[in-house]
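Researcher: Sequence recovery benchmark, item below. Answer with residues only.
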């Protein structure tokens, strides 16, 4: 009474995976929706050869980080924390101040929280390049624009 069992094999990309460069414009986009889209691109879930333990994602360039959209009450209520690793070294800054001083960190911290919290996640995070303005030094890579319909 043995039924025929089929062996299903998992596809694992072998060798070097081709990594494309993608450009995302953050102007006027909601932070949460934008960062989930960026995390998906970094992880490679938009590709048919996605494998969880392999770096199959793209290099993502984000421009206009200072123009990302928020609910007005969020500017005062959202607080970012960091610690100097010294006793009493907990620092906090609200979203409004963070956008004035380091607008790149707002998107970076949102995306970092959506990536795996292990060695692979730290390697994947290095493929994210965020810039406050519309200029970026990656023109030579010919990035493909994502999220804009012509």
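Model:
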């Amino acid at each position: 009474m043995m039924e025929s069992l089929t062996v299903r094999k998992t596809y694992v990309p072998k060798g070097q995976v081709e990594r494309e460069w993608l450009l995302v414009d953050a102007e006027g986009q909601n932070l949460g929706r934008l960062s989930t889209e960026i995390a998906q691109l970094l992880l490679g879930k938009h590709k048919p050869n996605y494998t969880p333990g392999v770096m199959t994602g793209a290099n993502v360039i984000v421009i206009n980080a200072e123009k990302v959209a928020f609910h007005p009450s969020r500017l005062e209520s959202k607080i970012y924390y960091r610690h100097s690793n010294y006793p009493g070294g907990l620092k906090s800054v609200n979203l409004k101040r963070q956008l004035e001083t380091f607008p790149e960190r707002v998107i970076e911290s949102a995306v970092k929280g959506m990536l795996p919290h292990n060695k692979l996640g730290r390697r994947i995070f290095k493929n994210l390049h965020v810039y406050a303005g519309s200029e970026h030094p990656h023109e030579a890579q010919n990035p493909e624009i994502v999220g804009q319909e012509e």
